[in-house]
Amino acid sequence: MDSIQECATEILKETYGEASEFREGQLEAITAVVNKQKTLVIQKTGWGKSIVYFIATKILRERGAGPTIIISPLLALMHNQIEAAGRLGLNVVTINSNNRDDWEAIYDAFNEVDAIIVSPEKLSNAEFIERLSAVSDIEMVVVDEAHSISDWGHDFRPDYQRIVYLLQSFPDHIAILGTTATANDRVIQDIKDQLGDDLQVFRGDLIRDNISIQVNAAQSKVERLAFITDALTRHPFLSKKQGIIYCLTKKECDSVAYFLSLQGISVTAYYSGLQDVSGEDMTEDILEGFHTGMTRVIVSTVKLGMGYDKSDIGFVIHFQLPQNLIAYYQQIGRAGRDGSSALAILLHGEEDEEIIKSFIEGANKDPELLQQILQVIGDSADGLKRNEILQHFNLNVTKLASVLKYLYVHNYIYTEKSKYYVHPKHHFDAAGNARIQKQLNETRLAELDNLKAFINYDGCYMKFIADELDAPDTKERCGICAHCRNRQFLTLEDDNPYLEQAKEFKNKLHGVITPRKRWSNNKKVDDALVYELGWTYTVDAYSPIGRRFMLEREQGHFSDKTVTTVTHFLKEHIAANDIEVITGVPSLRRPTLIPELGRKVADNLGITYSEALEKTAQGMPQKEMHNSMMQENNVRETLKVSQTEAVQGKNVLLMDDLVDSRWTMTVAASLLLDQGAAHVYPFALVNIGND
Known about the structure:
Layout: H1 4-16, H2 26-34, E1 39-42, H3 49-62, E2 68-71, H4 75-87, E3 92-95, H5 103-108, E4 115-118, H6 126-133, E5 140-144, H7 161-169, E6 175-180, H8 185-195, E7 200-203, E8 211-215, H9 221-234, E9 243-246, H10 250-262, E10 267-270, H11 283-291, E11 297-300, E12 315-318, H12 325-332, E13 342-346, H13 352-363, H14 367-378, H15 386-390, H16 397-409, E14 413-416, E15 419-422, H17 430-455, H18 461-468, H19 499-507, E16 511-513, E17 534-538, H20 544-555, H21 560-576, E18 581-584, H22 593-605, E19 608-609, E20 613-615, H23 628-636, E21 639-641, E22 651-659, H24 663-674, E23 679-687
Helix pairs in contact: 1-2, 1-3, 2-3, 9-19, 13-17, 14-17, 21-22, 23-24
Domain Helicase ATP-binding: 30-201
GO biological process, one term: DNA repair
Organism: Macrococcus brunensis
């Protein structure tokens, strides 16, 4: 029998041509895997990690092994992998949400295929695990983006913990291969702790010699929009390339993409939950358009990150800071995968740190909270549904879902028929968990500090990142970043033609306030108590107009300029809807803020202002209420209608300074409508939601 090295080399040359050669470390990794060693490959994006596991799969299959199991986090990556495997003559299948109708046929073929690609979430599916247990002679499991196994990884995913439990169910002799571009020493040690100290680590240099990094000084959103637009339309390199723009929130993705589209740039936003008018998921179609070149620019959240493989992406621009430097390295690694020169431009502004800190806070799994949730579930012999758990805690649905996922994948709870039960055999170690969470939080905040140091650094950017990743690079400089070349590749000129357009755009990001149709207990709101479609002056608190509104709000008084701005905005809406009365949402913290604004606007428009609503108790700030039940009750228990005659039979404008969850508007409007108001139209100066 030929040696592993001979077999691998023959496969490579048959597939990619006689002149093909392995990159440094590839053949050694293939050999280790085929020899059934636990292996972790840490190599830069584009190095060819998939070559390792596909050639290893082909050799093992030729020697009688069953199919390889490849655990991959991204649907787009699955498609890319199937294409790559096809070039090697491998028959690879995937089980995912897009091919549900084919699952039965795919399951039936499990013993015949060369590899099975699944998402980590699929490992929680009982039917899949049962079908997998019937597959014979599995000798290799691949964990792509293996840093996600580790709590310390920049993109830890609880579902990846299922992988560890799955691997424990396989015989000791199977090959385990983890691949990633982003694992520092702490992450490597954590993976060893979970997979075993006999893990062989193949680690390469991480400095990318074809991606030029530039970091701009802090800029307003207006300046960033103008900078990007000018670069994409007039810069001799960027104007000819496809690329990705990263934002921290869905709302910002939509805003940036819309402005660029107004300037004639082929662009689309991309993030979780994007649906067309019929409710169908649009993300696959968007990626296809980008992959084929129909779309030039994608404006994305971190959703377009791990594993996305389009070889000719020419630039990656961050409109806002990434969550940390390791995530930044992974994201800019989408560019220049074909070896061609690429640009990575990092922009940032005053809002970024606040958003990142909210993400860090949201990711925390407070041990005391975990213990309390387990107690509540355990106290119910019949189990509890998620909403039944929610009513006990001041948590939003997303946070509770995250906590329940954490408890579930660690086997502290289990589910039956949509109900949660405490697992009788797995004891929760609150003290040990508290230590880990404290360390994690400190690590995340330290990473944020390192990120802030990076944007103010005056040396080689790429070397700074490599050091953050504990990479073995011996090069001291990449030679191609803005500092190494001692020049900015792109600058924001004073005569940038898009500055005024961007300012006008950001100042006119008006929004709508849609009505809630159900109460927090999921009961339908009576049609007679539902407010009409309302308006917000801006959906961006960090736009020039939004910053002015927020500053004046903090000062406790809106300026005459703001009164004029709001009057002009509302004039048409009030006339079109025959609005006769303005009433404000009362506040004990700022008792004069909205009444003063409302009266002046009403006087300007020749209609009545009435203090129809009364705040009966202080209550908590709505921003500190984190789920619908708490938010609804917080308003309901502290508000009443005190001037019924002022609104009876009238169309009413309900005014507030901020809107987020819409529960204040929902409850206040229902009270007014219940007391005889004909219609209620909500209005707020700023929508502060981040989605």
